[in-house]
Amino acid sequence: MDPVDLAREVEIFAECGQRAAIIARQLPDGVLEAVAGLHILAAARVHQELHTEAIVEVIVDLHVMSAEDPYRFATAEMEGGPAVSSLQRGLFYQRAVAALGSEAEVARVCKVHKSTVKRALDVARTVECINDKITIHNQVSQRQAEWFAQHVGFSSDFSDTEDPTTARRLARLVNNSEVVPAATLFRQLRTALNGGRRQSAAVDLMVGDAAVGTISRAKSGRIKIDLTKAGDVDLDTLIAAIHRWIAAARAPSTI
Questions:
Q1: Which of 74, 93, 100, 191 counts the highest number of beta carbons within 10 A?
Q2: Cα separation of 140 and 186, whole Å?
Q3: What is the band of 10 on the pLDDT scale with cuts at 50, 70, 90?
Q4: Is residue 254 part of a domain?
Q5: Are residues 60 and 71 in the same domain?
Q6: What is the strand order of the sheet 22-26 is part of?
Q7: pLDDT tier at 234 (50, 70, 90 boundaries)?
Q8: How confident is the model at residue 164 (pLDDT cuts 50, 70, 90)?
């Protein structure tokens, strides 16, 4: 758990006590294993360390579980309970795949879509590739990992990839990078792959004196129009204006 999140949980535990039961199972040797609510257990332990004179008790909801049940309980809490970083989610599904055998089986057992598992794993795998080049691993976002995965594929050892195109370029760029925040590294990687060019900033789309949306153009030439306030504009006027905006956007100096 992130230190900031843990500190907050300890504060809540001290003020309000235990808010929910810790879900646990009994192992063959008689030991109780917490399956869900580990953030509560961690907060209780820290609270006990800070107040050694106090008697700290926790409520445990004991279940008889199959080998798959712990993953279901943990997933239900992770996907719908306390905030969990993208990396923590990815590491959880990584452990689940190791135990259950495949991403498809994890999705079945945890009752989530296969794409949910894949996206989470992308984050964990991305961090593995760049772990010594970023200052805080938990700052890698889902969006950054998806972009990275599209170019790398994670089909081979990233640091020794023989892909002569984008994956190899990314490996070289990462290897040559200084240690920086995740956002800085991904910005540098995107800019380098784009040859130093960034997607054009969006500009306002005007009908008379009113801004009814925005227009932007990617380096590929694709034009994106977002109409956010066009509801009161006459349809014919709007269509004519869009034609003018597209023609203007195709001009090299417009955006």
A1: 93
A2: 9
A3: confident
A4: no
A5: no
A6: 32-36, 22-26, 60-63
A7: confident
A8: low
> Mean pLDDT throughout 20-31?
89
From the list 228, 235, 236, 240, the residue with the least C-alpha distance to 202 is 228
Structure tokens at 32: 């109780």
Residue 255 belongs to a domain: no
Same domain, residue pair 45 and 162: no
Counted domains in the chain: 3
Tens of pLDDT along 176-223? 899 999 989 999 898 888 765 555 556 677 776 667 777 776 655 677
CATH number at residue 193: 1.10.10.2830
Domain housing 241: 203-249
Name 96's Cβ contacts closer than 8 Å, sequence gap at least 6: 71, 106, 109, 110, 117
For residues 142 and 139, what is the distance between their CA atoms, to the nearest angstrom? 10
CB 63 within 8 A of CB 42: no
What does the alpha-carbon distance between residue 138 and residue 145 come to, in Å, rounded to a whole number? 12
Q: Do 139 and 106 fall within a single domain?
A: yes
